[in-house]
Amino acid sequence: MSVRTAVKSIQKIMRKDPGIDGDAQRISQLGWMFFLKIIDDQDQELELTRAGYRSPIPGKFQWRNWAANPEGITGEALLNFVNGSLFPALKGLSLGKPGDRRRVAREVFEDAYNYMKSGQLLRQVVNKINEIDFNSLADRQHFGEIYEQLLNDLQSAGNAGEFYTPRAVTAFMVDRIDPRPGETLFDPACGTGGFLTCAIRHMEKNYVRTPKQRETMQGALRAVEKKPLPHMLCVTNMLLHGVEDPTFLRHDNTLARPLISWGKDERVDIVLTNPPFGGEEEDGIENNFPTFRTKETADLFLALIVRLLKQDGRAAVVLPDGTLFGEGVKTRLKEHLLEECNLHTIVRLPNSVFKPYASIGTNLLFFEKGAPTRDIWFYEHRVPEGQKAYSMTKPIRLEHFQGCVDWWGGKERKGREETPQAWRVKADEVKARGYNLDIKNPHAVADDHGDPATLLADLAAAEAETVALRDQLKAILAEALAR
How far apart are the C-alpha atoms of 378 and 157, rounded to whole Å? Predict the structure, then answer.
């Protein structure tokens, strides 16, 4: 049976279970089960190739010892084992030295839950998962594609949509930033790991040629995720992408630390992120940012990113229109950004890119630490011709960014020219505007709707005709009733 068929069968079985309600619960259930199967397959390979290797999962709870036998425990016995033994044991794993891989397992299960109520159906799901061999490169690659689609389903799973950035967007941002093995790369709000996986693929395609380079690449990754579901899915995503030790991925709130406490030794070469926007942080978090005191999450992350970048460090960040035109704290934050960094490019995206989760204008900000901003180039990304908007059935694709890539001017951004979609604004002009970065395309041609006086006259004539037709209809109805 193919990997795709196996996953479809798993989803079909889960729909029969009364305990699972909606995409978010289904994906969460799949998340912890796939995690245990993937890490067990990985463990079995490492036990053969690495002397003295020990799994982070205690023997009794390793997938091979309770799930691998298709004739193994089922029904109430399986439910009792999962709910009464497996989950408590993994939630309560004791930790040793920093970097202990058991922390990854404990954090995955910390807020996980077994939603399935039928032990028989749970056994059927387990048996289907057993048909996938994650040590098989072909199986892992095929499953990786399917897993990506499962994550994409989060876009329609209520509030869970905030954890998923369209992969065309992440791939474009990674391509423009061009990370290399050994450069420390940080995503402070990593969601399901889209930027991390795109960065890994980019480096493996362009720069990684030896096991040592792969080790160097993985050793320079940094990430934090606050919410349990995306954290779990991100850990599994890392395992799928060949990361043997995902301890760099922390389950925490990056904003919970005072801004000033981030020292020079924690600064990074690259930040790639789509911080949550439209929401607010819990009470007290704003006190960690005394200069930029606000509860708005996206603003706090932007302040943190500016601090965390090394000299000459570079960043690509997704931010909403509100950050561009906002005042007050947002003004001080933008002033700080333009003084500390070279905000060289803003790519303006249409409202429909993040549908159905969000339908607001978003922007990709590209900047480098160390020199103040002199000029900002804006590039207006447009929906392809013949298409009114992006949607679930017609999402944004990487090739839709090709026009921007062609215009970009390579690594040095040389030869940029103003076009119907691109324009340049001097930093002094932005300052004169009160640091309002919501600058519309000056080359856009306003729609010609005609002369207002003529339009009003046409409207009045149409209304009069409507009244006359309504009176005629009333007369006809009255005459018919009189008969």
Answer: 33
